[in-house]
Amino acid sequence: MRILPVDPRTLADDELAMMHGILSAVAAHDHPELPAESRGDLQARLAWPWPGCRSACWLGLDDDRAVGLSWVTLSRGANAAVADLTLAVLPEDRRQGFGRGLLREAVRLAYSTGRTSMIGAAADEGPAAGFVVAMGAIPALSDIQAVLQVQPPPAPDDGDCGDYELLRVRGAAPPELLTDIGAVHEGMADRPVGDAAWTHQPYDGARVAAVDAMLDARGLVQLRVLARHRPTGEVVGISYVIVSTRSPHRSEQGDTTVLPAHRGRRLGLRMKTEMLRWLSSEYPDVRELNTWVARDNAPMRAVNAELGYQVAGHWTQWQAPVAELASKLGLV
Ligand SMILES: CC(C)(COP(=O)(O)OP(=O)(O)OC[C@H]1O[C@@H](n2cnc3c(N)ncnc32)[C@H](O)[C@@H]1OP(=O)(O)O)[C@@H](O)C(=O)NCCC(=O)NCCS
After folding, report:
1. How far is the CA of 26 from the centre of ligand 1 (A)?
2. Ligand 1 centroid to 89 CA: how many Å?
3. What is the residue extent of each domain of the chain?
4. DSSP string, 175-198
5. How remote is the CA of residue 126 from the centroid of ligand 1, in Å?
């Protein structure tokens, strides 16, 4: 196998076609129930990482035929110790050492830049379990993937949330809300992460603006529903959905959180219900919402079940110490 490093920010057309071809073939084989990611969405995701992150990619070529890829993302800030891995080999080319060879490149970069943990997600029913165990990884977090068929909420909104009001914010947050939105994202700080090395990346207004700019560059629209506490004017809850104009059919339900002092008042359910009302009236092309939730996150899973989300898959975040991987792969 020949390894070809490719720059995700400036991929040539043939490089993008190879990466898209591999990820589409792997998804169609291993997860036929998932809609394929469009080439434009993949290109945008590669070219515009999250603020403070950078990515590197390698293609594995066998006689000039692309058989696999590895893609590693490194962050600054709270998660500077973690390397986030995507690794894929075409179904018909597995068990020939390509996965190991592509992983080696990702580990070389992670090791040389001082990362200590490598994390990669894989479906529990998929082919990865044997590979990750052979590489010495351990399960760090169990995730549930769930999908909701979008329909208007059955009950009309009586508009009465007691001390709280719900606000809709479309696209980039207005400057006067940046600080409040940054502060409410801090509600994610106590979410369950199992044994994963991830830590909460603190949010502030500057990060909100940077994420908005990244989403805009990717051609994505963020719809936020906020819960505001009327007596104090404080924003105490947020739920957001990301819609791609290229592939609105299945859109992504992002984080939903309520600040600890305001939990237990069904604000999570109310914000998500308001989002369904908004999508049904203004975004009819959004037919499904996809979401990820930790298996240990009972409150969020209960809200999702009440809304009608159906479990679509069980996934594990696998984690391995970078130094051990480097040793196992003969790098040190
Ligand atoms: C995981 C994946 C990348 C492995 O690619 P691969 O090219 O088949 O892996 P390799 O041939 O380098 O395998 C290396 C070792 O892993 C183990 N292994 C790999 N696949 C295995 C399987 N299906 N069952 C048991 N062990 C397996 C073996 O020990 C193997 O060495 P061996 O063949 O000498 O016994 C591939 O199965 C894939 O693309 N899966 C779907 C995407 C995915 O889940 N990626 C997430 C990874 S965290």
Report:
1. 13
2. 8
3. 2-146+316-328, 147-314
4. GGGHHHHHHHHGGGGGS--TT-S-
5. 10
Rounded to an integer, what distance in angstroms lies between the CA atom of residue 184 and that of residue 176? Answer: 14
Exposed e or buried b per residue across 173-182, where buried means at least 16 C-beta atoms within 10 angstroms of its C-beta? beeebbebbb
Which of 70, 95, 117 best tests ligand 1's pocket when mutated (most atoms within 8 Å of CB)?
A: 95
What are the pocket residues of ligand 1 if the criterion is a CB atom closer than 6 Å to any ligand atom?
Answer: 26, 30, 87-89, 94-100, 120, 122, 126-128, 130-132, 134, 318
Question: 147-314 is classed in which CATH architecture?
Answer: 3-Layer(aba) Sandwich (3.40)
Which pLDDT score is estimated for 123?
A: 92
Whole-structure pTM value: 0.94
Write out pLDDT tens, residues 64-114: 999 999 999 999 999 999 999 999 999 999 999 999 999 999 999 999 999
Q: pLDDT tens for residues 192-239?
A: 999 999 999 999 999 999 999 999 999 999 999 999 999 999 999 999
Q: What is the distance in A from the centroid of ligand 1 to the CA of 94?
A: 6
CB 287 within 8 A of CB 249: yes
> Atom 12, ligand 1: which residue's CA is nearest?
97
**Are the C-beta atoms of 331 and 103 separated by less than 8 Å?**
no
Query: Is pLDDT above 70 for 270?
Result: yes
Q: Which CATH architecture has domain 2-146+316-328?
A: 3-Layer(aba) Sandwich (3.40)
Please tell me if the domain spanning 2-146+316-328 has the same topology as the one spanning 147-314.
yes
**pLDDT for 236:** 98
Q: How far is residue 310 from each of residues 23, 146, 192, 314, measured CA to CA in Å?
A: 24, 5, 21, 12
Measured in angstroms, how far is the CA atom of residue 130 from the centroid of ligand 1?
6
Whose CA is closest to atom 28 on ligand 1?
A: 131
- Closest atom of ligand 1 to 85 CA is 48
Per-residue model confidence (pLDDT) at position 25: 97
